[in-house]
Amino acid sequence: MESNKTIYDLQAQNVRKTYLFMAIFSAILFLIGYFFVWYFNWGATGIIFLAIFIFLYNWISYENSDKIALSSVRAKPADPNEYYVLHNVVEEVAVAAGIPKPKVYIMNDPQPNAFATGKDANHAAICVTTGLLATLDRNELQGVIAHEMSHIRNRDILLMTVVAIVGGLVILLRDVMLRGMWWGGGGRSRGDDRDNSNIIFLIVGLILSILAPIIVALIQAAVSRQREFLADATGAYIIRDPEALASALEKIGSYTKPMQTASDATAHMFISNPFGKVQKLFATHPPIEERVRRLRELTV
After folding, report:
1. Which residue numbers are catalytic?
2. How crowded is residue 271: how many other Cβ atoms within 10 Å of its Cβ?
């Protein structure tokens, strides 16, 4: 952690950064959309519809972020009777963290992993895999749940939602631009001016096709790495037991097979890289060895 800053300072900093990212992303989306409006010569009406579209897209995705994330990995509600211990641990840690008990979901996957999702502490969910329950003992499970509870309390789930929403919309606009160019799309003017605008449109579309996925991946990697360390430390303070999560991470890290439902869009949400030992160009998680070392250096 940064020197001379407490966990509470870093939590407040996280919240500020979240809203800063939201403002920056909205501005970027509007600029990209404005070029689209300019090319098709839609004028003021197009700008108004662009603003409405961005607002509705973000609002709908934001309100349904947990449902979208859980559905994408085929998670199902964890039956309280069948998964009594899991519900009990989630409730205990929620009380210790001072937040409402999140909804509890289960993924049928042998890889030990977990993630949290939702828009805020009052609309959050924690999902764990069947592999996690089969691999960890109760104390280690408590450590993992405390880590995920920290993501909820630190407002990390909000930022992850924003990143996913913006990334999806940037890629959507990129695809529309490219298709509009290939279809001839009704550009701004006739003759040479139209040819010139088509060339500009193609260039912007190609730049977006190259940069958009890279920008989103870099944002996910930078944000996730920073916040994974903070969630580890916060979780350790919540349950007053850094060793529980350290031991859990060692077991999680020893599993090498990739998750069956993992994707680049959801990888950053999990407590550990769902692709197993595969080293991806923009890794969304810091090395487990480094996380374990930091946890065992903590005093709580």
Report:
1. 148
2. 29
